[in-house]
Amino acid sequence: MNLLVLLTKLKDWLALALALILSVILMNSSSYPAAEKFRFGLGRFISFVTTPITLIPRTITVWGENAELRAEIIRYATDRNRWRDAALENIRLRKMIGFRTRTDFQYIAADVIARNPVLNMSSLQLNKGSEDSVKTGQAVITPEGLVGVIHYSDKSASIAQLATDPNFAASVRVERSRIDGIVRWYMGEMLLIDGISKNQDVKEGDRIVTSGLGGVIPEGIPVGLITGITSSRGDIFLEVHVDPYVSFGRLEELFVLNQLQDNPETVN
Amino acid sequence: MRTRTLLIVLSVSILLQVVFVQYISAKWFRPDLPLLVILYFSARRGSFYGVIAGFFAGLIIDAFSVGFFGLSCMAYSMAGFLVGKLFYFELPLPLSRWMLASITGIALHGLIFAYFYSLHDSPAFTTLLLIHVFPAVAYTWVLGMLWAISPAYDRRSKIKI
Questions:
Q1: Which positions in chain A touch B43 (Cβ < 8 Å)?
Q2: Chain B residues close to A165, C-beta within 8 Å
């Protein structure tokens, strides 16, 4: 009886202890498939409820974007004609020197149906899954540049890990000097490339693109601009700060890159 | 606040957090609506209920995240517990008490997040605290205070702390 009274008295402490133990267990089992499935199922259920509601603010945004996009289409059509000749010449030259054909990609358009709602904005849930050829490890982009990679894919939905996730890393290249490095999250919406030795040719304002090394993310996807360079680790290496092209806080429509079979190069 | 009312308010706050908060956020100035509900509920109903509400709200919030599944459960539960322990008040909360309760809970929640994220390579704890956590804490607290001075706030009590 006394024990019962004691337990009742300490019920808040016991509840806290239980909550903390469960939280630690959950944190340690994050990578297990069962935990992943549970998390994903819960996320899908909530996104099923929230999707109709998100249509309201998104419709308003779409109206505004429509006019801008029409103007951009005209601009791109003009550019396309200009670049067509250069592309044809490039294909001819590549064939002459025996380069292998480039891989083609299918762009799978996906809508954001849920996002990580607290402090960190490290993941998004997309409305396309394995039924639409979305698979784990595929790159996620916007017209501006790299967003992240597919972290988990279910039948009809998937989770994209953003470049602002602390666990994210991608092989990148300084476009001008072709120096390779690994980009990862630094703070806020800033990214960082470290491990580049001090004598390498890197300047503020240089454009960073993906290098394609590692085979996860295809090469040439814009990542961001170098905004600052500092020395680190006893002045042997540089810390290169990158401002990404993508604004991670307001992502709504994305593209997942699905690698197709190697195709002979053509210009349409 | 009754348990049924809490469930409804908490569900709505999570829904708003997931769907609409991005439209009133800028960079790291991002309010945490479910946290405000949990803190208010803890202060009115006590730490036991704060822990329970915090844990389950955190579980739902964590379902949307890739890393650290369980971190929101922990942070919400601890914030709910602390506020329930320090600021439990049977009558409707006076404004000053809510002011202290909310800043205590929000700050603890932010500290827990900053600590766990600083376990990664970078950024450092203080950087995380200043750049990521402080704006979110400030925004959430201001929102909590705006609600407290609005007509929707239950201020029947004349008792001051």
A1: none
A2: 66-67
